Amino acid sequence: MALAYRPVMQLGGMLLSLLGWVLSCLTTYLPQWKNLNLELNELEIWTMGLWQACVAQEEGGMQCKDFDSFLALPPELRFSRILMFFSNGLGLVGLLLSGFGLDCLKLGERQQDQKKRLLQFGGMLFWISGITAIVPVSWVAHSTVQEFWDENIPDIVPRWDLGEALFVGWLAGFCLILGGSLLNCTICSTEVHPSSGHYAVAEQQDHGVISHL
Hints:
Layout: H1 6-29, E1 34-37, E2 44-48, E3 52-57, E4 62-66, H2 75-100, H3 112-148, E5 161-162, H4 164-188, H5 194-212
Antiparallel strand pairs: 1-2, 1-5, 2-3, 3-4
């Protein structure tokens, strides 16, 4: 029964991992890591991402300005850039390796051990990719919450709030981890090779002939 669900689990794991990788790439370039709503001017909403800061107006327009220097960024944004690139790269490699290890792929049918290793290694890469996507968004969220509730900052000073990109990043990380878990679960199920089936049928026929004799 486990063998019957194996291709379905592999397909589900690949789809979840692909969704997580796309969301991770989207999180990297979204400018809504932090939101700032000015009470004095409610018509404008400032947002900050890993690459640029933007201001959105009520009329629907948005103006963005890229950061001039990488070293001038806060520490959490600098390390978030590196970790998100690392997550996206590992996710891409995991998709390629896992794709070659799927049972539905006829390439390398007689090399099941190698395909199993590719599938297992791809699933582990999805785990690491998911963790490296969750860590930076959680770090930025933690620092934002700390600054928001900092009593040393006067109440009249506007404070940054959590942006939508952080929630997209959390979803991406959980999809990658869940997808990698499904792929690794399929490795535990055993597969019956066609050659063993033919051998069993031939052995039964030989026993039948012997009994008739």
